[in-house]
Known about the structure:
Number of helices: 12
Helix content: 25-40%
CATH class: Alpha Beta
Largest sheet: 8 strands, parallel, barrel
CATH topology: TIM Barrel
Number of strands: 12
Distance between the termini: 27 Å
CATH architecture: Alpha-Beta Barrel
Amino acid sequence: MALSTRPLGNSGMDITTVGFGAWAIGGGGWAYGWGPQDDDASVAAIHHAIDRGVNWIDTAAIYGLGHSEEVVGRALRGISGADRPLVFTKCGMIPDPSRPFEEPQRSLQPQSIRRELEASLRRLGVDRIDLYQFHWPDRTGTPVEDSWGEMARFVEEGKVRAIGVANFDIDLLDRCEKVRHVDSLQPPFSAIRRGSGADVIPWAAAHDTGVIVYSPMQSGILTDTFSAERVSRMDEKDWRRRNPNFSEPALSANVALRDALKPIAERHHTTVAAVAVAWTLAWPGVTGAIVGARSAGQVDGWIPAATFDLTGEDVDEIAQAIERTGAGSGPRQPAAEARR
């Protein structure tokens, strides 16, 4: 089946409602790595997603300290021009290569993001990046107006097609919007981590800003095969071992919510992963969801989310399950007036 598409704000790009997330394929050896990863499997997963109809990839310079972009670039070299996906990447997290497991510096200094842009273009092997995004707010004291002004210059220079931000609050969004339109927003959003549904997603809808949400399956929890036992088998350096959602008391509530999605998946003849992703796509204002995969098989688990819609009854049932299990935080479903 053809995958659904939506316009990414007023950027001029129509994107499939699911996109390939390249965080995990950066591999291990850094602060937020997912453990060892085979590059050939990563390239095969990217090609499989594109063959299934996905038309965009989201990566970042920090993923694997540049390795994810290199793998994406390798995958792109095997795809002809007409079939090549849109490429989105991010800047603003600067690691110390001699201390890869330390927290990266969050810098949006104009000269720094320009250096990052040039490096990303080289690693990806492209002349222009379709969407270039700030990964996190700056912590160097640089005014966001200066940073965003530099991003606007990248567009003027033809090195970037559209510009966006990730993990920004409404105050920072407003400040950017006064300088130049924010083409896209990338917030965390899942049936467990729901806070963005109360503030920045409605902001984006009101400003014609596209929204691509990340971690819609809560980094693997909202999938068919996840279990508490699986956490114990994760690589010792896997960042998820440090995340509260993967330890008690949150873990049991999260698994209970995952279990509550199973009857809905059965009704739609699909997977729990697809239901979890489809839940994020049911929120007004959301354009698409970034969904990671480390193998072609994982792609097949979530790609059906772009081929069906949850019913109002499904959304209500999930809201009731959220309340019953106590999993996560944030609004349990879109406001009734927003769903009309």
